[in-house]
Amino acid sequence: MLLLTAGIGVGAGMVEQDSSTGQFETESDAQEASSYIETNFQSGSNTTTVQIVQRGENVLTQEALIDSLQLQQEILRRESINETLVAENPIFGVENVVAQAQLQREARARQQAGGQSGGDQQRRQAQRQPPAIEEQIAAIERIDDSPWTLEDLLTGERGVLREGSNSQALSLMANSYEPGSTTASARVTIVRQQTFGGAVNSPNGFASNVTDAQLEIRDLAEDRDQEYTVFGAGVIFQEIDQSLEDSGAIVGPMALLFVVLALAVAYRDLLDIILGVVGIFAVLIWTFGFMGWTGVAFNQLLLSVPVLLIGLSIDYAIHVFMRHREQRTNSDDESIRRSMAVALGGVGAALVWVTATAAIGFLANLTSPIGPLRDFGIVSAFGVVAALLIFGALIPALKIEIDTVLESYGLDRQKRAFGTGGSVFSRLLASGATAARRFPVGVVAVTLLLTIGGAAGATQIDTSFQQEDFLADSPPEWTQSLPEPFAPGEYQAKEDLEFISSNFQQETNNGELLIRGNVTNEQTLVRLNEAATDLEQRETTFKLANGEPDIQSPLTVMQRTAAENPRSNFTANFVASSGAQNPSPQEIATLVPKENVSALYGQLLELNPSASEVIYRNDAGEYEAVRLTVALKSSASGSEITSDLRETAETIEDNSNGELDVSATGQRIIQYETEQALLDTVIQGLIITLVAVFIFLALAYRLTGSQASLGVVTLLPVVFSVSWILGSMWLLDIPFNALTGTITSLTIGLGIAYSIHVSSRYELELRRQGNVWDAMETTVTGTGGALLGSAATTVGGFGTLVFAILPVLQQFGIITGLTIIYAFLASVLILPSLLVLWTRYFGPSGYFPEDAEEESAPAGETAAADGGTTE
């Protein structure tokens, strides 16, 4: 076993970490469309953006604008940042628009005065190159000496933020900004970076120098006098990775410490405690080694597995050790080896059944379309099997050898089993047997009422899968006093995301319509215009500060490009194709071409290469697809967004007479589909696990000489526990998420262990002692004591998750702890009554005292019809 442990453990060094939320996404039409967009449209995977939000009483003052430009200057001077930026116009904000407006006015003023120095400005405009940052800073500094004021530049006749303007500057203001006002509390500057071929939704594919550059930008912003919030994908990925490491650093040692303390109470023996801890480490080595050899990456969901296995391992250890102690105490003359053999013979079958049923519960996650949930099921199932082998073979063998050596030196190794000997714990545990003897039907009736209430609450549980679930809150103050390496870092991305999402548009909140087919049809642009009109009226659409929706499509790019280049051949053809006569610049921005669509696509791509973000032309020169993007409200639900976009997509398809195939996609839709897959996993996993465990237990009991109906009775407390835990989730307002979505299979996998131990011990003692009440007393004080010890350690182990940095881990710890408590209480308080009723009506006869001819009911204990007694 030690050699096998060493061989498997080699794989532990091969385990990689993957904290991407993209790994939870499922295969679907929306996912396929999103992958198509990333692959074929220029903006798909080439760039990522950083948002620098300036905040304050008024971010439109001269001082605030200059400070923003100076920050840009510092960013561009840092080589480590500059090398990650895109080549053309990498930084853009309101401060740049204002500075360029000032420079343009100065150039016109010089031209009107007869000067020639406006040539540089005209050449720069022709090349689409912004003036140097130094020039822009100087321009804003000269405003006080200009004939116009800052208010003129912002909200005057040609002001960049005037009411009714559709300028880019307005799109960079918070949605609470009133156009025409010279006061604003927040505005954003966009920094565009190259991703160097990396995936923007996966930290593993995100270039490390891009993340480092984003963190460096944040550091530069924090050092300035003005208040800034810096947000980007790299910042998110860094905090998710850090939260995983910090959570593990805090939770792991705390869980181990609690288990050691709990074992000290249960074992009261240093050697047994050490053996238990050695066994735990061996199980973890096997599990992580398995992950390394099979290539399973460590993710947020798998962070709960070590805690789960610590609890299960101790469960196995306590049952083996306590049964061994019981055997030695009851048979003083038996050797250590013989006592262990008898103990394993008695508890071994139950441990095998527990392992099998727990593995079935975890493997039910294989039906899930979510990859990490399948990995969780496989790894957890393997870990349970490893725990059986370690604590069913290795640790007993070590205990026999060590105890034999110690007793040869005269040391007494006989210890009393926990929960026996008339202790307070044994009296508490006996209450289940007492209730079963006096009013078993009443116990079952109350249980059914609680179960019905829990089931009603279960139907009200929400489902959640969003990036915020994996972002940590600011750690509590007490964690700051922890020594290294346990002290957590600082976390601010979640708070920043909440602020930015409520005030500005996020790329992750964009909805997309992918249009494939005959996209050069003369009615394609008309359909896109109708779709934009439809989306504008939807409640889920985000509106900019000017009250307009943020929609990008081939049509909007055409309209904007034509308005900005009124003398170009493209504009002439664009106007002609729309049938308009001598339109004004403002009217050009509203035209919709109805012919020559293919030719317009080609001319647009030549004049404005950024049009490749919304038009895809394949290598053969054919126009294969176009796309429309729309900004969405962060407050809108996934179901509302999905419904609106799919309805708009269907409208385009229906009106195109089958020539266009339209797919609604975007991160919000993909997240919603993941939520639905998660809910399906919960329901399917529950049904599959219950059916599979029922069949297994029925066959197991039947093949070992008992009635198959005992399997049903054994499973009932677990069914009750599932209902109770789902009702508790509703009461505590905890949704189904990436971790809590495993709770039904986990409840059955963990809870069935308690029921099996009680039922198996009761059935064994019933045959041994021949009396239902004696058998029940021995079961709840003997096995019940072991269950109490294992429940305490498991609850404590999972309870340490409430100290994790990640909120989802905290919720998982709370719910799993309650699951163990419910399963334990159901097994020692409710299952005894069920077993009494089963014995009376379905089990073997002759085990009740009143059933034996030579015995009669004790005085004052007239037999009750429900199998109990009237006392």
Overview of this structure, please?
Residues 105-132, 851-871 are annotated as: Disordered. This is MMPL family transporter. Keywords: Cell membrane, Membrane, Transmembrane, Transmembrane helix. Residues 274-401, 677-837 form the SSD domain. With 871 residues, the protein is α+β, with helices and mostly antiparallel strands. It has three domains: 47-239, no CATH class; 269-473 and 672-851, Multidrug efflux transporter AcrB transmembrane fold; 519-658, no CATH class. It is 59% helix and 6% strand. The protein is built from 29 helices and nine strands. The chain has helices at 2-9, 29-40, 62-77, 79-82, 94-112, 119-126, 133-141, 150-155, 168-171, 208-222, 233-267, 270-294, 304-330, 336-363, 371-408, 424-438, 440-458, 493-503, 524-536, 554-564, 569-578, 585-588, 597-607, 638-655, 667-703, 709-731, 743-769, 772-799, 807-841; strands spanning 47-55, 91-92, 186-194, 227-232, 510-517, 551-552, 615-617, 623-631, 660-665. The strands form two sheets. Strands 5, 6, 7, 8 and 9 form a five-stranded antiparallel beta sheet that branches. Strand 7 and strand 8 (623-631) form a beta hairpin. The two termini are 53 Å apart. The model is unreliable at 853-871 (pLDDT under 50).
- Helix count, DSSP H or I runs of 4 or more residues: 29
Structural class: alpha+beta
DSSP E strands, number: 9
- How would you characterize the largest beta sheet? 5 strands, antiparallel
CATH topology of the largest domain, by name, is Multidrug efflux transporter AcrB transmembrane fold
Label the CATH architecture of the largest domain.
Up-down Bundle
Top-tier CATH class of the largest domain: Mainly Alpha
Mean pLDDT: 82
Shape field: elongated
The CATH homologous superfamily of the largest domain is termed: Multidrug efflux transporter AcrB transmembrane domain
Distance between the termini: 53 Å
Secondary structure: helix percent:
55-70%
Number of domains: 3
- Poorly predicted runs are 853-871
Proportion of beta-strand residues: 5-15%
* Radius of gyration (Å): 35 Å
